[in-house]
Write a structure and sequence with these properties.
- It is a single chain.
- By secondary structure, this protein is mainly α.
- It has a domain of about 150 residues.
- It is about 60% helix and about 0% strand.
- The chain contains 19 helices and no strands.
- It is elongated, with a radius of gyration of 25 Å.
- The N terminus and C terminus are likely disordered.
């Protein structure tokens, strides 16, 4: 089931803990180590039970005890405390304080979802989408995503957009997908920014617009997502509009993407190595580009998670770029076949907000050996 890691999820929920108006008026202010939290929980205050449950689950201000935390959380959930019901779903999904039970997880998610709690609606949608704890049903997943998306839940908006883009669980409508991606992107959801940028870059569902694509790639790359940095690097290195190419900046972003992968303990990916090679070539560093491209081919050959057909197609693409670099020529993406009837998104103000990624109109001087082919 797609969700935050358990620790991150609980930390988020603790930060979101806001007592009801009744609790605010009747209960004393309770800080992280307030001694009277137990008293209010024992009296049946659902907010206190929820907060106490979270603290036992996380060890915030007291000794961590997942079993006791689950018990207090369940007391709050049985009083129809929506966040508590959502947490109960997560506990059963992950097997924390209880035996793992995906069916029970869905039951708890549904209780909160049916009362309008957007994160639970999203979790319910993912359960239907993946068939975890309930029979797989892409159409029902779409219904729940729509409910959460209407409440401006960015993950739900992005997942719903993906369904419209691919025509899974609903009729394909890429223009509608673009609108939902935009709604999530305007809430700084990185995956939505990247997907919307790609639609602008290919002219799919929206008019072809390299400047808007670049601006959204640039906004996404301000995050700590290595793939967002990689996307911007590729854009700056290979964009069909030469006025937006920038080899120096491309190399910086590609290097940052690889550095973030290393720092997070992730394995190097041939896609990112391929990007780094394209950036070096755009910057005129062809000898380095050749070495990096050969490295990407070696990593591709070792990947056991793709089919042979996929490997063959990628190898042909990588080999083609390698030949270009050996001829001291950078790689340019071909112009896409865009949707000429696509309508623009008037709500998109990215160019006013972010600016246009650009570069010198003149290409960089080659740093290779001169004329001829680089071996």
């Amino acid at each position: 089931m797609i969700r935050l890691s358990y620790a991150a999820f609980l930390a988020t929920m603790l930060a979101l803990c806001v007592p009801s108006s009744q609790a605010q008026s009747q209960a004393p202010k309770r800080g992280p180590a307030a001694a009277d939290l137990d008293t209010w929980a024992e009296r049946g205050d659902a907010d206190a039970q929820f907060e106490l449950g979270l603290r036992y689950l996380t060890g915030e201000g007291m000794k961590k005890d997942e079993k006791v935390g689950k018990e207090w959380m369940e007391k709050a959930a049985n009083q129809k405390h929506l966040r508590a019901q959502f947490v109960m779903g997560s506990l059963y999904a992950d097997g924390v304080g209880v035996k793992k039970d995906e069916a029970k997880a869905v039951e708890w998610y549904r209780k909160a979802a049916e009362n309008g709690f957007a994160p639970a609606q999203f979790a319910t949608a993912m359960a239907y989408d993946l068939g975890q704890g309930i029979k797989q049903d892409p159409a029902k997943a779409t219904e729940w995503l729509e409910k959460a998306a209407e409440q401006n839940h960015p993950q739900a908006q992005t997942a719903l957009a993906s369904k419209y883009e691919r025509g899974v669980g609903t009729q394909k409508n890429v223009s509608k997908a673009a609108l939902y991606y935009l709604k999530a992107a305007q809430q700084d959801f990185v995956q939505a920014m990247s997907r919307l940028a790609n639609l602008y870059y290919t002219g799919n569902g929206v008019p072809l617009d390299y400047r808007r694509a670049g601006a959204w790639y640039q906004r996404a790359a301000k995050s700590e997502d290595p793939w967002a940095a990689n996307n911007l690097a590729w854009f700056l290195a290979t964009c069909p509009d030469e006025s937006l190419q920038n080899g120096e900046q491309a190399v910086l972003h590609a290097s940052r993407a690889l550095r973030m992968m290393d720092e997070s303990g992730e394995d190097q990916r041939y896609e990112m190595i391929d990007t780094k090679a394209a950036c070096l070539a755009r910057n005129g560093e062809f000898l380095e580009a050749i070495l990096w491209q050969k490295r990407s081919l070696a990593l591709l050959a070792e990947d056991k998670d793709i089919t042979e057909d996929e490997r063959k197609q990628l190898k042909n693409e990588f080999d083609g770029r390698l030949k270009l670099y050996q001829q001291e020529s950078p790689y340019n993406e071909p112009e896409p076949k865009s949707d000429v009837e696509a309508a623009p998104l008037p709500q998109d103000t990215i160019l006013q907000d972010e600016g246009i990624p650009g570069s010198d109109s003149k290409p960089k001087k080659k740093k290779g050996s001169g004329k001829g082919t680089v071996v």
